[in-house]
Structure to design on (888 residues):
């Protein structure tokens, strides 16, 4: 993309309303614009990141055998009356009356609707297990939306719902999502630790929050240091196999948010292995048994002819929230440091003297070579001064920047800069491209 | 995808509420489920088609230089009060009060919001031309939603908005979208004819509807037969060049919906070149000048220092509606006939005797080869009877079906079936795969 043709409205001043760094950086970097409290437009740069995150979430859901579908944003209230949650949900639910005065709502979550879909089509244990997910906009009418996309009202979420014949099968479904989540967050360049969460009236051990460590995180977290070095299952993990050894390894070590923190248990962790840090919740997985299938009469026939309510779980990832969470976990004073997998552009060419024939020609050549090599490349071909160009590249966090100017070219060199380390190297254009391609191969 | 693990709830009976063929077939093929009047869930098969259409629409918008962003579904009412449309819009607008009693609405379209975004960031003619688009869910509270996704309430739409310094530049922006639309619909396997549409109070010649010919179409259309053979610009069309020769060629021949039909002008078309048919509107492009920039004060500075309201156009494609439109244009008594570019699966393997070792092994082999060749492949590995399997494949419209059974295998052959032509050929497995690969290369 040529920057002269792009829409990247960088803000020079730090917006006053933004209380946390991800919110500030997303506004300054021209990633988004607030349209109402907690409601944002995603400008081109922000949308690119959102879509890359969404893509990774989708791939890992599919790999784990979940099937993608898409439920609408507007739901009839009837379903929620049936499950008993319509009155309970309170003011966070955005209630709507349509032109015929039918009670509708903007879905804050989809347990009711997916249960309705399930009971409409599935009758037999032979059709299980089943895991259906969608990635869709949701609305929760927070009383005080804040922190940008970290606590917005309209937000983008992946929610999966598993259906199984009994609790043992449901546990296997739960394990599949557990492993899929480990892989998802690792691919997003983050250390996410599963931590035991409140499992409500059902009790048991099948509710985990996935927490990303970030110094600016919303909650205090306590965990065993070995969790940071725990290997994440590879691409070749077999989701049809017994995944409990993986889950057991991750859950055998102490990890809790301050809400569930147990000082005594933490004290049992060797002192040099204790970590007290801050974290952000980016995912939540939850087995809830027959909580919805019972009142909504979602039953299947067993092998011996009985008719039993199906066992369900739900599995959420806050996709739009992740954009903020990644920035909270990875930034410096100059701006955002994107993990390679979600960077809006892989690499950029910075032209230090637009209009200088040799510089322009070299920039065009490198920009062409980057694209030919499969990079999503940005070319700053504007007539801004060098300092502003450097600042923009660091602010928006382009991982690799090739800076081209007449002085360097006079000695046959361009400068290759790594955003994360700040390392700069003067290289021939050929060497710079070779390095870029080698680094990209290494990262993928 | 193995059908035994997929969620494809085929309906045996034709749903009574469905008045038109696309609605009937989408319900029968398990593509979608109605959740409320005019509000649908997209089941896995339907979502695949929707995403493929969305992908083609996106590629062609990007090729034409439009920039993707994403506006929220919920909008503040203020913007619409400012433009003067809040009261005009009537009951089709889904109005919402949030918990603080602020007036919001579910966006039926986005002229106001995009104008607000534009005026917040863009000040100078140097930043023009600009075309921003998004593909997002919209809501129009139709008094009587019907015809499935053809006239739903919650629908998926691509809407682009162009910003230019003056009418001449706006015309160039209009031409770029005109050409992008020709390419988009052609890639979707449809003959879409641009037809002059009502341009409202602004007048002029810059408003066209794109109409797909389909015998079950909603409106009568009249056009010159040569339009059906008019070449669509190729991938190499230069969107920076003067596109008016292309636009002039397409608009020089008679084409009108019954609303704008002019009997006298049609009579001037040579008799053997006259077509009277039926059609479905799938896109609409529209130049509206300063209709929103004037009241909303969206101005730019010209080269000579004047401050002028920006000239705008909007360009819509009904993405969810297209799923229905394609089916209306392409089906037979057995089901849907997808154009290759949007088929939910490229090819399928049908196992006629699940459990027979040789048949299972050959099916696995072919299914593996299809995937290795890059096909999005479906494998019917269920234990349904052959007739039901054939019916399902034709109903959901898999373009190429490889049928494998013990009888054929005894003589070393499988059957390759083409869904569109009904042609069947007995071939060795190798020849069937070669044919498939060759056909796929030809189609792309």
């Amino acid at each position: 993309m040529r920057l002269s043709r792009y829409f990247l409205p960088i803000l020079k001043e730090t917006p006053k309303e933004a209380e946390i760094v991800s919110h500030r950086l997303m506004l300054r970097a021209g990633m988004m614009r607030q349209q109402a409290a907690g409601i944002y437009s995603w400008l081109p740069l922000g949308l690119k990141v959102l879509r890359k995150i969404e893509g990774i979430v989708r791939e890992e859901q599919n790999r784990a055998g979940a099937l993608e579908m898409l439920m609408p944003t507007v739901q009839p209230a009837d379903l929620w009356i049936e499950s008993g949650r319509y009155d309970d949900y309170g003011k966070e639910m955005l209630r709507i009356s349509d032109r015929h005065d039918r009670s509708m709502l903007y879905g804050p979550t989809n347990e009711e609707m997916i249960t309705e879909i399930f009971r409409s089509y599935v009758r037999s244990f032979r059709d299980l297990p089943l895991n259906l997910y969608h990635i869709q906009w949701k609305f929760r009418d927070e009383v005080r939306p804040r922190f940008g996309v970290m606590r917005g009202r309209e937000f983008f979420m992946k929610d999966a719902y598993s259906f199984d014949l009994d609790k043992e099968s449901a546990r296997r479904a739960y394990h599949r999502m557990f492993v899929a989540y480990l892989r998802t967050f690792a691919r997003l360049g983050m250390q996410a630790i599963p931590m035991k969460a409140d499992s409500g009236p059902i009790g048991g051990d099948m509710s985990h929050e996935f927490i990303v460590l970030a110094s600016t995180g919303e909650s205090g977290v306590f965990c065993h240091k070995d969790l940071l070095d725990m290997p994440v299952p590879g691409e070749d993990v077999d989701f049809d196999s017994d995944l409990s050894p993986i889950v057991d390894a991750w859950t055998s070590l102490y990890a809790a948010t301050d809400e569930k923190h147990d000082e005594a248990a933490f004290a049992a962790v060797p002192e040099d292995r204790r970590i007290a840090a801050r974290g952000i919740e980016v995912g939540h997985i939850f087995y809830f048994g027959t909580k919805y299938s019972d009142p909504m009469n979602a039953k299947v026939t067993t092998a011996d002819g009985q008719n039993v309510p199906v066992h369900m779980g739900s599995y959420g990832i806050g996709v739009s929230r992740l954009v903020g969470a990644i920035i909270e976990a990875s930034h410096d004073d100059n701006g955002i440091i994107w993990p390679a997998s979600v960077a809006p552009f892989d690499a950029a060419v910075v032209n230090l003297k637009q209009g200088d024939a040799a510089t322009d020609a070299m920039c065009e050549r490198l920009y062409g070579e980057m694209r030919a090599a499969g990079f999503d490349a940005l070319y700053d071909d504007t007539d801004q001064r060098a300092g502003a160009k450097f600042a923009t590249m660091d602010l928006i966090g382009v991982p690799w920047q090739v800076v081209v100017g007449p002085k360097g070219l006079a000695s046959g060199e361009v400068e290759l800069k790594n955003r994360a380390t700040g390392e700069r190297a003067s290289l021939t254009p050929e060497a710079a491209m070779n390095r870029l391609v080698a680094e990209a191969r290494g990262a993928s």
Q: What stands out?
A: The longest helix of chain A spans residues 167-187. Chain A touches chain B through 50 residues (CB under 8 Å). Chain A has a mean pLDDT of 95.
